[in-house]
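Backbones bend. We report:
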Amino acid sequence: MLQKQPFVFALFNLVVGWLPAAAQQSKEDSVRKVHDYMAVQAALRYPILRMVTVETETVGSVHYTSKLYGKDFLNGQIQPKILEKVAFRYPVYTFGRQEVSVAAVYIAQQTALKNTVNQLPETPVSNGTYTLQNLGLALSYKRTDSLFNKSLLWGGTVFANFSLQSSLTRATGLFFGMVPLKRTRTTRISAGLLVFIDPSSLIPVIPSFSYWHKFDGSPWEISLDLPTDVFLRRPVFSKGLFSIGTELAGNNLLREVDLPSLHGGFAIKDLDLKSGFTLEYPVFRKVLVGCGGGLLYPLQYRVQDPGKGNNDYAIGVKRNPGPYFNINISLLK
C-alpha cells in the first residue's frame, strides 16, 4: 500500500496540473468554433469575404437576333455552353481602420451558335463554338472614417482586364462611399454612392442601398443590396444557407475581332438578371460548396469599342430568357 503512494501522488499532480490546461484549451476551442461559425455565416451571405471561389455555370439554348451597325445580322440559337470562373481575393495590408487588398479573376466562356442565318454574307460568321478567355486584376483600398458623427466607409478599386487570346488590355476604376444608418441585432441599413471611371458604363454614378433584416420568430431573413441583388434567406441543415431571389450579373470580356466589317479590339458586354435559388453548405472548416439555378433574363448583350459610350456599339444582340444552373466551391482565409 505504501508503495502505491508515490504513484497516486504523481497521478494526482498530473491531473491537477492538466485540469487548468485542459480548461484553457477547451475555452480556446469554444472561442475558435464560435469564430469559425461566424466567419462561415458571413461568407455565405457576402461572397466578397471568400478567398478563392471556383464556379461553373451552364445556360440553356435560346433564340437570338442581332444587328451590325443597325443592319439585321445573325439569328438562330445561342448557347453559352459553359462559363468557368476562378476568383481570388486577399487583404495584403491591414492597419487600424484601413485595408489594402488584391484580387484576380479568370473567366473562360464558350458560346455555341446553331441554326445560324447570316443576313450579311460579306461578314462571314457561321455555326460553331466561340471561346473567350480573360484575366482581371484589381487593387482595392478601403477605410473607415466619421462624417457628421456618422461612420463612413469609403475607398476605391483599380481594375485591369487582359485578353488571354491577344495583347488587348483595358483599365477602369471605381470609387465608393457608404454610411451606416441603422445597426441592431436584427436590422442593418446603409446608403451610399458608386462612381464608375469607365466611359462605357451604363450609368456612371449609381446610388447604393443596403438593407438586412432578420424576422422575429422566423428562420427567414431578407437581404437587399441595390443595385445588385435582393434575396430571401434561411439557414438549412444547421450550418448551410438557402437563398431565393434575383441578382444582377454581368461580364465584360475583351477579344480581338478580324472581320471585313468589324476589325480591332472589342469588349463583349453581357448583363443579365438571374432569378432563382442558391444552396450552400460548409463541408469542412473553411470550405463551402454550393449550387444554384433558375431563369436568366438577358438585359444587354453588346459588342463595342471598350473606349466608347454604352450606346455606341457595333453589334447588339437580343436573346430570349433561358434556364441556368451552376455549381461552386469556395475556400475561406
